[in-house]
């Protein structure tokens, strides 16, 4: 691997999640992804290598069936010298947010995952590039009979979770973004969703210019994102030759163009893949809108209007994402008892864990089992494990990110091999990719069950308190307006 031959000063901190940390090279279009661990936890180099190889196999042999091989970049496992890794760790440690430093980068195994830098790839190097990363989250309401709280049939997980995150200080403001609006296929609702993502990006939207982050959430960032500053970055892409340079009208116009491009690409047809063969439940089975959505509330105030459900084109990436998400047919409340059944079985037969493929290998055999949509629980370990594995894949799809890379082109320059999107003043070649496709850990199901209960209970408590406050104010107003009549 040539990465370690590159000066460590040419690498920079790129970002991180709960389980891994990513660095990118300033010149070469590659990133290295290292696992992270709490200070008191160690794994052997062989375990690290195996874990990373599983990530590669899961993307290569499983998720490519859902999204298409062209859109899934599984990367490769590489071994680096320990001296290079330690020097790199020291170099980037100062760039990491304080809130992320509770977990250490793996500097002992020497193994990392080498991936293409999706913010810069696919195009001629000298051309400017704009990259939009969207984490759309879950695009449907549960339809399982195992759901215990009716509110889950009406309000989506994302909108409910916002209240708990704000209460815990994760975010300062509630986002008005609702995933069901984005997944609706209705351009008006999609535009509304994307506009609210821009207003309150949190960790669901990032924008890169030539590989540099220019817009989006940064950990512990108190200052709000500046849309006018973003418009200045975007203006050369969307209005390269006119005099529109400042003012709110300019910002609104540029952001409107950006939203138009994103919507067009998200609805465009992509490479054919096996996702269309999945016999998942059609989105029409559940409600197609969330009662907490600001879009829904706005229409609710005007009884003459109603929400139209246009539906997603079957070839578009959002449709494929939704199909993978809807492998979750039971909801966590239906899956959790099945998880406990598997756990009890493993306690009795611990050597069966490998045979059951809980930790891989992720191959065609694993994929074929995901296609089993039996709805009758026959009490077997096979049924329970199938539903647990389907849920894990669904959770992966609910947490994936979509990367859209744009590069300006002239009409006579655009290659027929690459798709093109046109705006009022510009035209772009574009590329779409999907990332964050690690299979969700089997052990996380217990945590998901507890978190689901916390989210729902807090939302019910919060909305009930709000309703009580409104009613109390109404009663006070009525008391203030009481007219007392006395006999003359």
TrEMBL record:
It is found in: Cytoplasm; Nucleus. Pfam families: Ins_P5_2-kin. The keyword Transferase applies. One of its GO terms (cellular component) is cytoplasm. One of its GO terms (molecular function) is ATP binding. GO terms for biological process: inositol phosphate biosynthetic process; positive regulation of transcription of nucleolar large rRNA by RNA polymerase I. It comes from the Eukaryota. It catalyses: 1D-myo-inositol 1,3,4,5,6-pentakisphosphate + ATP = 1D-myo-inositol hexakisphosphate + ADP + H(+). Keywords: ATP-binding, Cytoplasm, Kinase, Nucleotide-binding, Nucleus, Transferase. Its EC number is 2.7.1.158. The EXKPK motif is conserved in inositol-pentakisphosphate 2-kinases of both family 1 and 2. Phosphorylates Ins(1,3,4,5,6)P5 at position 2 to form Ins(1,2,3,4,5,6)P6 (InsP6 or phytate). Belongs to the IPK1 type 2 family. This is Inositol-pentakisphosphate 2-kinase. The lineage of its organism: Eukaryota, Metazoa, Chordata, Craniata, Vertebrata. The gene is IPPK.
